[in-house]
Fold Unspecific monooxygenase.
Amino acid sequence: MITKRHKYQLPEGYSLLQCILRARAFLKDPVKWISNNMDRFGGTYTAAIGFKRKLILTQHPGFISHVLKENHKNYQKSTISTDAGATYLGNGILFSNGAFWLQQRRLIQPAFHREKLQALQFVIIKTIKESIEKCPTGNAVDIYPFVHSVSFQVLLRSIFDIPLSPDTFREITGLFGNIQEFLFTDTNQPARRLLYPFTGERRSTARKTQRLRSIIRDVIHQRKSSGESKGDLLDMLLNSTYEDTGESMGEEQIINELVVLIFAGHETTANTLCWLLYLLTSHPPVLQQLQADLIETSLPDALTNERLKATISEAMRLYPAAWMTERVTLAADSFGPYTFPAGTIIIPFFYGLHRNEQLWENASLFNPERFMHSEKTAWAGHYFPFGAGPRMCVGNHFAMAEMCFFLHAFLTTFQLQSTGHVPSMKALISLRPDKVILNIKKRVLDKAAV
Ligand code: HEM
């Protein structure tokens, strides 16, 4: 056990040898493994990942807030996530730090302001309505591939408002899936890097990255040569200029940012929707009440439907797509009884924070009402589905709009029932269910109500 190191007071936890011996348990089910350790060590613990390098994992709300908000200037993303991400997905805001990150964030954030999103609302709704028609129905449908595909289409159409051919769509989906899988393994099993010269994984991923970038580059060239203005996210990036120089963003940087938006935006939303459909079908009274509410609401008004928003919030509490994040200390820091040197990696464990019995009444219960009858201040300090502080999710309003419109269209079109299947958690870069198998039938409208 690590208790004291030099002048620093790290939390209790595991030495390097203990971490190596437990690596299999971690890789098999990271969320369960970390949750068990949180119970064992009281919500914060240390894991040594090198002779000098230490991680502090925490689900303490104050510690998480200290790192992401109050003392954020002393923290940045660590090379563990930024190096591989920037190599294979480009140096967009998700994988950059410091002045460059701030400059890019200032340029991109305005595109996601609520008023700007109203312009995208039409595309989002249209894409969802067209897709819903193609939803598979039956007694045991795994809804994950369908929801993933809709969410991907919504994002791609919001970024480039052009119809992509089914082949191009499939190709982009496949490329992202492969690159993402490689990144996850690369980050979690660094020892595998020794094998890359023999397996050729690194080279093949680099080729996929180049292919992805060339598809996006072609779309940008088409847009520039057409002179058209679509009001989509691509137009916004093409037209934006840096505050200090007044210059536009270079083409390669626009590609970096578009790749990052697609990467950060598609699976997180799809995963949240799928967990939510699983939770709703396992709680029929909650589902029925929500459906009754939505039938009385028009699709555009879904965005302000309190019950719907509370239900999404509750699903993100129990299954936060971003189940953890990471930061590294720039200078030595302290929180509560702990002190730690520069270079310590802090892992805010959102999954554990959101299920902490001391912070949430009946924490494991799916109960959307908890978000309906309480002031935001009651949970704002311990609920971070979109992160917190200056690096908080830039796409949160977009994600909420997409989820509200999708759920309205889906729940008013279909009758859903649980099949009793319980999804397993796959804690990849985001937390996804392996499958969500549901009984799905078209709703028969009550004639009197038509
Ligand atoms: C339910 C859906 C989503 C969830 C739960 C989610 C969650 C998060 C979280 C927790 C972070 C902060 C990570 C950190 O602090 O290290 C983040 C960052 C980010 N998200 Fe999302 N996100 C979602 C959807 C989206 C969408 C739809 C987009 C874009 C269209 C997007 C783009 C981004 C970007 C670019 C960042 C990096 C921001 C920065 O570092 O400045 N996200 N997201």
Remarks:
- The CA atoms of residues 295 and 446 lie 11 Å apart.
- The chain has one domain: 59-449.
- Residues 93-94, 105, 155, 260-261, 264-265, 268-269, 272, 321-322, 325, 385-387, 391, 393-395, 398-399 surround protoporphyrin IX containing FE (CB under 6 Å).
- Residues 59-449 form a domain with the Cytochrome p450 fold (CATH 1.10.630.10).
